[in-house]
Write a structure and sequence with these properties.
alpha+beta, single chain, two-stranded parallel ribbon, 4-stranded antiparallel beta sheet, 205 residues
Length: 205
């Protein structure tokens, strides 16, 4: 048996996890896990994304960051001036996502509701992470091979470095209760926050 699972899981969040000053325009915190087989990732997803990038820019160095795409910033500014390219870009991107063989686990936390419901306020990041980890374990339990996680990688910026602790603590508690085989934790901190990081926050299964 291999020392690693058949799956790789990428995770990212949307919104602010703070509960003190809740933005009424975006009062939620969301966390999403995208789980895919490594064979599908290597043979299909990565080549598909690379081919898409080469077709748009002539190289594959551009990071497909949602914020930059939506605001047409940086390398995506060309989408504002070239209608044909813009339509081809979104059609191609939508096809990539629709065709990608992956399972998605998502948790969306209503922060106002969370704060009102519990006297001892729970951190939205931890609530969402625990839910997604439990769903991931349930998926792995349904596979032919015994589920286990070899390494959980937590990435956080320096200003949000405490999230690395939350990730490690919540993931350890969930996985330990599930009786998974072996777990190690690593934290990688960025020197400065960046919305254009080429490496997504990830949990590797």
């Amino acid at each position: 048996m291999s020392d690693f699972s058949e799956f790789v899981v990428y995770a990212d969040e949307s919104g602010d996890h703070g509960l003190v000053a809740i933005d009424p325009q975006y009062p939620v915190f969301a966390l999403v896990f995208c789980a895919m087989r490594k064979t599908d990732y290597i043979a299909g997803i990565v080549p598909g994304v690379q081919s898409f990038k080469f077709g748009v820019w002539g190289h594959d160095a551009v990071v497909l960051h949602e914020h930059d795409i939506r605001k047409s910033k940086g390398p995506f500014a060309v989408l504002l001036t070239d209608r044909e390219l813009r339509e081809r870009f979104y059609e191609g991107l939508n096809r990539l996502v629709e065709a990608a063989p992956m399972k998605i686990f998502a948790a969306v936390i209503d922060k106002s509701g969370l704060r009102a419901r519990y006297a001892d306020t729970r951190n939205p990041y931890r609530v969402a992470l625990r839910f997604c980890m439990e769903q991931l374990h349930a998926m792995l339990s349904g596979e032919d091979s015994p589920p286990f996680v070899k390494r959980v990688l937590a990435r956080a910026s320096m200003r949000a470095g405490h999230l690395a602790w939350l990730v490690r603590h919540a993931a350890w508690a969930c996985l330990a209760r599930a009786g998974l085989k072996t777990v190690w934790f690593s934290s990688i901190a960025q020197a400065t926050p960046s919305r254009r990081s080429a490496t997504p926050r990830s949990a590797r299964a």
